[in-house]
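Page 47, continued from p. 46.
Same chain as before, 830 aa.
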Amino acid sequence: MAQVNDKIMPVALEDEMKTSYLDYSMSVIVSRALPDVRDGLKPVHRRVLFGMNDLGLAPNRPYKKCARIVGEVLGKYHPHGDIAVYDSLVRMAQEFSLRYPLVDGQGNFGSVDGDSPAAMRYTEARLEQIAAEMLRDIDKDTVNFTRNFDESLEEPSVLPSVVPNLLINGASGIAVGMATNIPPHNLGEIVDGLLALIANPDLPDEKLLKLILAPDFPTGGIIYGYEGVREAYLTGRGRIIIRAKAVVEETKSGREQIIITEIPYQVNKSTLIIKIAELVRAKTLEDISDIRDESDRDGMRIVIELKRDSTPDVVLNNLFKHTQLQTTFGIINLALVDGRPMVMPLRTMMQHFITFRNEVIVRRTQFDLKAAEARAHILEGFIIALDNIDEIIKIIKASKDVETAQANLMKRFKLSEIQSKAILDMRLQRLTGLERKKIEDEYKEVIQLIERLRAILNSKELQMQVIADELKALRERFADPRRTAIVYDRQDFSVEDLIAEEDVAVSISHNGFIKRFPVSGYKRQGRGGKGVTGASVREDDFLEHFFIASTHHFILFFTNRGRCYRLKVYDIPEASRQSKGRSIANLLQKENDEKVTALLSVKDFTDDRFITMATKGGTIKKVVLSAFENVRSSGIIAIGLDAGDELIEARLTDGTQDVILGTRRGMAVHFHETDVRDMGRGAAGVRGIRLEDGDEVICLIAARHGSTVLCVAQHGYGKRSPVDDFRLVRRGGKGVIAMNLTEKTGEMIAMKEIVNDKDDVVVVTEQGMVIRSHVSDIRVMGRNTQGVRLMRVEENDAISGVAIVPGSDEIDENAAAPEPTDGNGQGTLL
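Result:
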């Protein structure tokens, strides 16, 4: 319901909400959040500057308390909170917020560390020189004025700014349903661009972009890559990357340290330092030993000390990746044009400013012409009076009062009322010869001024010339060197380029702790040794997966629930040999009940390779490798599973290989890969082996002719058998015996293909013991045998994982000699 003229009118709720919300949103857009394209100011900033001008706070006048200024603006023009006015005043005085501050502040106006300014009763302010240029000619009818909130005063709807403030200082604001984020620029570059557009309105964009290079932020920094700048300039929207400016210095002790001298725009320095310290404590950032802030009144200096043997480039780029030393500035060139919000490319914004300046010049010229013509009119009366001074004196003496004298002068010499009044007000000293000469000279000057002003009004070319001259004078007074550097050829940084490519051992424990460690850290021992500690594990934990990969490869993680996740190997935290590592839950966004069951090292995702998967229940499936090129952080489906089934293994194949599935009870089936057709990721697969009750698949091998198969049992026994001993059958059969299992050997725990006798085999136990031996030390036997002892396993321990490591000709001189083939030797504890 609505009440109009004491009558209650029915109104639909939907209509009232729509109308009220639109009124509110337009009020926010026009009267609060968005700048005007002409002077680049929001209403509150415009009112603050106009109020300071009212108070006579010119750059050459004494400062006044900010509380006085805020009171002036609140009482006359801006009926909102005093904090809103003071915050706007403060921001216009901050050198780290505005590229060209508009307010000259005295006192504590905050800092780049996020410190709050002092209370308004303690701080003082006056206009900066460049702000005075924005208010110049405001008393010459150059802009329209509107009534203030109580209609007792008038305020300008826009300032007659000579300064292209929107472009040099930028603006940011959030309205209703829209936002603006215009970056600051260098005054010299903007003026050069405006002059070029004035000379040639059809100037090609490429030439304009050579004059205006890029945004220029008050805090400096580096714009990293030019494509975002170009897109923003041509369309009005774009994203640019800003990096801190850093150098590497060497200390007297020989260590290196990174010195940050400039940070990205709108980044809080204290918060940045705290964030870096937190990441160091969390070991997300490594190789940093200390961080401190040595900034002073001479400039910014953040010192990051590095550990010995660290790579500064790697540390710095990790800082760029994880902290606000690198930020993204989203450009939205949204401003009010004739009261309507509009997103504009750079050229359009500049053309609107030129058009506005042209209007100001025309209105100012008309005002000056009117004043000059009025002055010429009076001077013409003075000249008439001086030429007839005796008669004029006689007429004045003969008149009984001023009104009569004025009327008589007007009648006798055909003077206007203004001229006659000016003659009567003229002082006697103007009758001297020198004063007469001054009047005549002034009249000639005024006539010349009138001619020039009329010429300007009649010529668009002369109007453009006036604008250009004023811009050149502005550049001469206020232009300064660019602060923000530009790196044009941006390449997405990859830590991979700075990390040495090497093989590393990746281990995952039963409770989900992962780490990487250089393979070279595990010294080779003879077969049958006791092993070396590979990880520190809790009593209820044991190592379950052990995998060899290059630091530059991807690792695909397959879980028992049939999902796939992906990481770069170098993203896996490196740890000491004894360390338990990092919880995999901190690296993969998997569910709590998901368990990693297979890992693959992949360099490139191509269409000519496949991932072949096997489940515990005997199902097999093949998917083209390229289907896993885009893996979301939350994972993707790799295989559809039946209820109660689990994914246990995944292998890379080329489409022509043979496949061997091995079971816990020592059975194996050998069939050709072509028996399994290529399927989509969501498919469930087909039967690979028919299992006996209580049996389950433990491994999948992509076999090649001429290689051997290593079978390892729980209690440390193992053997090698030729692949050709496993006869080729169709998929889906029961298979043949792969290893003769007894109570002494325990169940079969792993099957691995051996291609090169020079390779090494690494065996891991549930208690974290690791032994590395020559493959050639393991005897090749028939399928139906139990093998030899590979590792002495304690009674409360069992084999949990086996990995094949590329062989090396280098053998540590302290490593034990190979033991007898019966496997009874203890070897050397490393």
